[in-house]
Amino acid sequence: MHNSKEFKIPIGPQHPALKEPESFSVALRGEKILGVDIRLGYNHRGIEKACEERSYVQDIYLIERICGICSHAHATAFIQAVEEIAHLAVPERALYIRTLVGELERVHSHLLWLGVAGHEIGFDTLLMYTWRDREIVMDILADLTGNRVNYGINSIGGVRRDISPAQVKDVLKAVDKLEERTKYYIEVATEETTIIKRLSGVGVLAYDDAIKLDAVGPTARASGVARDVRRDDPYAAYDKIQFNVITDTHSDVYGRTVVRVKELMESYGMIREILKKMPEGPIAIKAPPRRIPAGEAISRYEAPRGEDVHYVKSNGTEKPERVKVRAPTLANVQAVKHMLKDRFLADMPIVIAAIDPCFSCTDRSIAIEDGKSRKKNVMTWQELHDYSIKWHRERGFDPAEINRKFHKTMEGK
Amino acid sequence: MLASLIYILIFPGFAFLGVFGLFAEFFDRKLYARLQNRVGPPWFQPFADFIKLLGKEEIVPCDANPAMFTLVPVIALSTVVAAFLYIPLWNTTSLLSFNGDIIVILYLLTIPTLAFFIGGWYSSSLFARIGSVRAVTQLFAYEVPLFIGILSAALLANTWSLSEIMTFYNKSPVLALFNILGFGVSLIALLGKLEKVPFDIPEAETEIVAGAFTEYSGKFLALLRLTLDVEMVAGAALLAAVFLPFGLGANPVIGFIFFIAKVLFVIALITLLRTVFARLRIDQMISFCWKRMVPVAILQLLICLILKGVIQR
Fold this sequence. Notes:
The structure holds two protein chains of two kinds.
Chain A: E1 6-11, E2 23-29, E3 32-39, H1 47-52, H2 56-64, H3 71-86, H4 92-120, H5 124-145, E4 154-155, E5 158-159, H6 165-191, H7 193-199, H8 207-212, H9 217-221, H10 229-232, H11 253-277, E6 295-303, E7 306-314, E8 320-326, H12 328-340, H13 348-354, H14 359-362, H15 381-394, H16 399-412
Antiparallel strand pairs in A: 1-2, 2-3, 4-5, 6-7, 7-8
Helix pairs in contact in A: 2-3, 4-5, 4-11, 4-13, 5-6, 6-11
Chain B: H1 2-9, H2 14-35, H3 45-55, H4 66-85, H5 101-122, H6 126-157, H7 162-171, H8 180-193, H9 205-208, H10 218-243, H11 252-276, H12 282-312
Helix pairs in contact in B: 2-10, 2-11, 3-10, 4-5, 4-10, 5-6, 6-8, 6-12, 8-10, 8-11, 8-12, 10-11
């Protein structure tokens, strides 16, 4: 009886599986997913527009708050574009410090993901363990930059804080500890039967589809696409560091897990190498310019979730003319629809989680177009206000009346 | 009359079971937390949650059938409490006993699942409906190994009465060791009955919010949660009675401490299992139950049959 009927269930905008509001409308037959409708736009904050009204220095801090996890990725991508327009030569040591913070951020992001993935498949023990160990890298980041998440380490033409030899020792000690723990997680993730059962064969994205749907980051690499900005278009100090681009041929959620835990191991090696090779010298250029000459630039950065693209256009003033951000989730979210086809409802949370989505970073305002008349359904502020008053009046509730009463009481005081 | 009322309302009925059930929830949560490297709740947390929920507003959805929706928690709780009255505590005799009571216990312990199904179905929420269908689907998978596991122990004792089963194993405890497979199977099946990881599919939080309980609030939710706690105690007590028949018939005080310790031991095993596994999918759960657990349960049945032949000769 139940199985013969098709019905739609709303996963989101508010749902325990989603950490941020986003709508996935799932058409189901029994437990089987027939199709998914993804709707963005619940978390749009208008940061790009806000950047145009602030100076470049203010923008660094605003851009950093696009994402709570890969904040350094966004800030660095933005600042690289600005530095390119202004033709600034950033000191070597500053580039190394940026790379170091970037890799520590990747470690923290991947450990966080591992915990979230565990939670989505009902394995809370993994969540508790990984998040406990994630504290080690968070403490190191707080020690190096002063903050646990929004590091604020970048400045135009360099970084704001130097690293002392004592801090180098602390980082090395922490990395040793993390490496030992990560080896244990690799063992757990690759040998625990229920984990393998829940992850393998789920959310398959074949090599061709990954290329066609423009997947980026670990999602693409798990499908065998060796795509990594750090190697393809090196920035900061990545051209001087040895590392392997981790790929996997499983093409499923299991492959994405393997790629991420192996990338953790790769990051530990990179952190050690960065600390060994870090040259002496200044950490920022003297007197960075407030006005950036007219020009435009695109900057790419391999964030923990994939390629992050920033475009900056300047007009010779203190404020940018246009800033455009393409967060990695926007590239990957298209693939989710493909991955969920013909899977079970139970796979939905982990498949969505496997691209490591960050919806608030990717979110943009959307206009829904009517299929036939091609008419866009956009409301101005006044129209929205009128609509809300009309909606309430129809239900016997007059906001104007309340308003009047409110003003009366306020005046009476 | 008065004695019966005391039995039903105070000991070993509602009052004792409520307190012990909530304590068992604390024990389970605290152990789970410690195994996961967390601090865990203080001892009064389940009691505080229960009292808090009793004081909250209860909302009955517009489309729900109010009679069914509100009756279900009461039915579920009273059946598990009724089941407990048939389980012996510190000695081999229970409050109510007759030949065949073990079937009645298993039957009464099945009713909460059906009640959850009805409650979820009538609350007319999509998440609750999916959860309730999953609960019943799961019921057909774990119930068979659970029955075979427990009844093969009864078969060896040659009786359908729980008291007599306990007397039999108490006389010859060595024979209880042969039921170890049945104990394992029943324990895992109990995880399905209690909807705990890896079989918490009907209330998988990240998929269907809270499954059949999604629309419940206030004192109805409090009763449903208490039902699950009491069911955990009753299930653990049943397993302890059938498979761990040690330390019976002595001093009532020592016997009672033994009983509590045995129940907590079974709950600790359940907690351990739910710590080390991820949630399975419903199809994986069903194939696991039928392809792995049922054969093991049948093996247990064969062992018991052969053993019985040996003993009788």
